[in-house]
Predict the 3D structure of the following.
Amino acid sequence: MYLSTFITLLLIIISCYIFLCVYFIKIKSKIGILITILIGLSITLLLLTNKIDEHNLTEQDVVNDLQLVDISIKDNFKIIDNTVRGMPERFQNTEIQISNNDRNNIIDKIKHSNNFKLYRNNDDVKIDSFNTYNNSLDIIFNFKYPEFYSREVYLLIDKIPTRILVYVDSSNILKYSRYEK
């Protein structure tokens, strides 16, 4: 629903922009041409927001996101990949390379949490997660699926419902996803 509204609004803005460009070029108005250039730059910036976010992720941003799920990285780490997509909903997927020590500490923290659950297959997840986890704000969920350990939290960040998921497997790659609705 939000996406179709956004696309419709974007098409209307682009149509108006094209009309203004043609009109102001036709009447040779310097102020009008300047206004259409500024509008064009604004639209371009709006369309490139996700690409800008992908390249501007800092180590401090990663640390702040991980603190929201009560995970701290003590050793140095490297951002391997960061992708951002979606408008107005925002989906961010990030991969970082962490030390073996940090990986073990994260897994221990997940395994020794009060609400840790072990899932053997998709059926276990379907039965439990949809009943337990939906609409639970500020509660950190911890579980092990056969291939990975995970920690999830649902929060309101700047009045935006946000879900953050952290995955750790046998490699030293930590993956986390941040979904803003």
